[in-house]
Specification:
Elements (H helix, E strand, L loop, with lengths): L1 H23 L1 H7 L7 E7 L18 H8 L2 E3 L2 E2 L5 H10 L3 H4 L15 H7 L3 E6 L12 E5 L9 E4 L2 E4 L4 H16 L6 E6 L36 H4 L27 H21 L3 H36 L6 E7 L18 H4 L3 E4 L6 E3 L3 E2 L3 H8 L14 H4 L10 E6 L11 E6 L2 E6 L15 H4 L5 E6 L17 H17 L13
Parallel strand pairs: 1-8, 1-9, 2-11, 3-12, 4-5, 4-8
Antiparallel strand pairs: 2-10, 5-6, 6-7, 9-10, 13-14, 14-15, 15-16
Length: 532
């Protein structure tokens, strides 16, 4: 026994040393492994950029190699949506992480209350340097940013007027390239390089009136862009859809929208003006000679619309690439979260439309592509919404997410973690009526398969709001439900609300709707389950 005890004593001593080692050498270990740097955040948002026109989504309408670079090294969210498909309200939802009623910015006639809590303010308090360049479109002065240089209102495509931290100036050139120039200049010369940064680069393009950069004129003229299968939708069973004013055949103007006999060159320099007039002058001659009518005219408008729209996307993609190249060349790309999205989706002729606003898929759904260094790659099919971006950025920065934010952090999805519990439905609420395009107020719920929409009239007098073509049409009251089975009817052509066999799913969807309205403080819009 004594021999055995003596032979074990050295082993016990070695074990004691191994147990004590972490306690004896903590300082040495910390010096050898520097603390992990916080991720920078580079957020790119375009205006009215449809997911159909990003090649990473596979629709084949065009090629966006630089946006696809983000997708190749990150996650393409295939079921990403907005809370309110309208520019200003969507931006307010993004900044606050809250639905429109909660943040107070319900339509484009509103002014954003910049004094409220936003994620840029919280990041700034946590030590981030924050900046925004490009389109703001919220009426008030940006708050929570160390640097801002924004377009006035919608902004102009050529020689746009910017407000540089309060100083107004006209910058010569094309808006998309200028916005990227401002982003690179801030990164290179103006930011504090000792701090992590959050930079928002907001493009005006491809917003109406779809004015391409000179170098992109005619890029798609040899393309015969396919007509959507439901281009000649008759809106049967969908009263609100029948009353809109966003049809390509009837509401898209050859002059204002398609540059026929309309002078858009007042802000251009002589070289730009010459190239523009040569290009659109030829198109105008061909159009006048053709004397198109009915379906031929509608399809000509569609082709012209798409060619101009896609030309704008060319510049967006090219300038996304310029900033990505700068980040890579300066060793920042591998420590920067990169996001590409749009303030909402857009109609590429589906239902015969341009514009957005409706809860139908093409405008409710928005592109969202996120590249996180060391994060997951591929696609994600979880139901996500633009209110999720604010808590995501805070979570990534290690900042506590305020309890009153409606969104949910996407960080677990970006890290590739298995998320057992995720939302099974999304809420939507559009508030702007009467107004341009005469889309009625509506709210609704979408889950993985079904969508339930309620169009409602709250007694707002029609008035004479700018942009309404037919005031009498705007006076028509619409109180209606719509229900779609997105698995059987992905184009939302058949409203099955009240049809035989739909009572059970209708009841389920109304319960989901009521639950979300209660969650987001919109109980006043609650609809009884048995209402038909």
């Amino acid at each position: 026994m004594m021999f055995l005890e003596n032979s074990l004593r050295p082993l016990r001593r070695i074990s004691e040393i191994l147990l004590l080692a972490p306690l004896l050498l903590p300082a040495c270990k910390q010096e050898e492994t520097p603390p992990e740097e916080p991720l920078n955040i580079f957020f790119i948002m375009s205006d009215d950029h449809s997911y159909q026109t990003i090649s990473a989504y596979g629709h084949g309408l065009n090629h966006t190699p630089n946006i696809d670079r983000i997708a190749r090294d990150g996650i393409v969210f295939t079921r990403s949506f907005v809370a309110n498909s309208l520019s200003g309200p969507s931006r307010a939802c993004l900044l606050t992480g809250k639905h429109s009623l909660a943040n107070g910015f319900t339509d484009n006639a509103t002014i954003f209350d910049g004094s409220q809590q936003t994620f840029p303010k919280l990041l700034r308090q946590a030590g981030y340097q924050t900046a925004i360049v490009g389109k703001w479109h919220l009426g008030s002065v940006p708050q929570g940013f160390d640097y801002w240089n924004i377009l006035i209102g919608q902004g102009q495509y050529y020689s746009p007027t910017f407000i540089d931290n309060g100083d107004t100036t006209v910058i010569q050139g094309y808006a998309t390239q200028i916005t990227a120039d401002l982003a690179i200049n801030w990164l290179e010369t103006l930011r504090d390089k000792e701090k992590p940064f959050m930079l928002m680069m907001h493009n005006k393009a491809p917003h109406r009136t779809w004015m391409p950069d000179i170098e992109d004129l005619g890029t798609y003229d040899r393309e015969d862009i396919p007509l959507p299968a439901n281009f000649y939708d008759d809106y049967r069973g969908r009263e609100a859809a029948s009353l809109q004013e966003m049809r390509i055949d009837k509401d898209m103007r050859p002059d204002y929208d398609l540059k026929i006999g309309f002078d858009w060159t007042t802000r251009m320099n002589p070289n730009q003006r010459e190239a523009w007039n040569n290009y659109y002058g030829r198109i105008e001659e061909e159009f006048n000679a053709a004397d198109l009518k009915d379906n031929d005219l509608a399809e000509w408008k569609y082709q012209r619309y798409m060619r101009d729209y896609l030309g704008c996307i060319n510049s967006v993609d090219r300038n996304v690439g310029r900033v990505l190249d700068w980040l890579e060349a300066n060793g920042l790309l591998e420590n920067t979260l990169v996001i590409y999205t749009s303030d909402q989706g857009f109609y590429m002729g589906e239902h015969g439309w341009f514009d957005k606003r409706f809860m139908y898929e093409e405008s409710f759904r928005t592109p969202l592509i996120i590249r996180m260094p060391g994060g997951r790659k591929g696609t994600a099919d979880k139901l996500v919404q633009n209110i999720d971006l604010a808590p995501t950025f805070l979570d990534i920065a290690g900042v506590s997410v305020p309890e009153d934010m409606h969104g949910t952090s996407l960080l677990p999805l970006l890290e590739g973690k298995k998320v057992r519990r995720w939302r099974d439905a999304l809420y939507y609420h559009y508030h702007e009526f009467p107004a341009e395009h005469t889309v009625r107020k509506h709210f609704g719920v979408r889950d993985g398969r079904y969508k339930l929409i309620r169009f409602y009239d709250d007694g707002t007098p029609p008035g004479n709001r700018r942009g309404i073509k037919d005031p009498e049409k705007a006076k028509v009251t619409v109180n209606a439900w719509e229900l779609y089975d997105l698995e059987k009817d992905p184009s939302e052509m058949h409203n099955v609300y009240g049809q035989p066999g739909t009572r059970r799913i209708t009841r389920i969807m109304k319960r989901k709707l009521s639950k979300l309205q209660e969650q987001y403080g919109e109980e006043s819009f609650h609809i009884e389950e048995d209402e038909q």
